[in-house]
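Sat 14:20. Reprocessing the chain from the morning session after the first attempt stalled halfway. Input below, unchanged.
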Amino acid sequence: MKIFLTVILLSAICTANVPRESKADTIKNPNAAKKTDLRDIIGITHVSGRYYLTDKDYLNEGADQILALGSRVIKVWFDNPPRSYPFNSKWPKMNSFVEMAQSPYFQELFKKPFKTYIMMCFSTGHGGGYW
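Finished this time. Tokens:
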């Protein structure tokens, strides 16, 4: 729990201290390269938690918490969703990555305003960590 809170605190501090580009900077040098916000670089992994905060399905509850922290980069496990995201969810049996991506929970996740999705994928039927 202490590590989790430390990660959240560090993410919030990094996100809050991102320098913002002002209109004056753009006017002075219109050819300057556009800066990338830290919230589009620093992400958060969401998988296999041991508790939940709301009645919402666990995958999207965690995604909403990440967005609330300010990050727009999320890493999720695309393997055995009933084990990785068990709370408040009724996962159907899925035999392929396409079926997982088409599930209502992942479809809702993909509609969120993340800039980057990092997905840990393992061969279906073997489970993660087989290599």
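The mean pLDDT is 82.
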